[in-house]
Recover the amino acids of this structure.
């Protein structure tokens, strides 16, 4: 019964979020608050993206590098409240066989209100319209956020079929000594 209740709460939160209404925890219950935000399709502006990354505590990225990265994105969305960008997400990849969800960010004070779920729903709709059977869709979750992405069909690695996902942060000074 607890699982059913939890699923119903999640569905309710997602439906309300699509309407711009958030359930905000207050005491032992919740109150509904209409934030009147909207999620708009489009690549986030560079300065907004850099600000969101900083507020989320992510690594700094050079502005020129971010400009190039955003320009090469396949798809993006921004969450806007009172003309301020409070969230963003984008997709990179080859547009057919490989999609990678990058930079799903919501300003800390607006997290856990369903805004990220609305953005991810739009991202997944874009991928659904463009992906072919067997297409790989990947992402790297921030620590502790894996459950959020599992709701969209992603699964953790390693598991019985797949090894660990891997990552590196490229440093300009890196010596090219691959495979040694």
């Amino acid at each position: 019964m607890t699982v059913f209740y939890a699923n119903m709460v999640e569905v309710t939160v997602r439906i309300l979020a699509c309407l711009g209404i958030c359930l905000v925890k207050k005491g032992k219950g919740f109150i509904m608050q209409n934030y009147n935000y909207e999620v708009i399709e489009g690549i986030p502006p560079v300065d907004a993206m850099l600000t969101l990354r900083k507020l989320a505590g992510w690594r700094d990225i050079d502005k020129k590098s971010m400009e190039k990265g955003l320009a090469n994105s396949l798809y993006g969305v921004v969450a806007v409240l009172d003309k301020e960008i409070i969230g963003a997400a984008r997709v990179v990849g080859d547009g057919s066989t490989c999609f990678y969800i990058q930079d799903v960010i919501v300003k800390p004070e607006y997290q856990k209100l369903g805004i990220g779920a609305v953005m991810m729903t739009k991202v997944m709709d874009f991928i659904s319209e463009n992906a072919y059977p067997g297409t790989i869709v990947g992402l790297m979750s921030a620590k502790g956020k894996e459950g959020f992405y599992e709701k969209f069909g992603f699964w953790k690695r390693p598991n019985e079929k797949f090894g660990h996902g891997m990552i590196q942060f490229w440093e300009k000074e890196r010596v090219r000594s691959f495979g040694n």
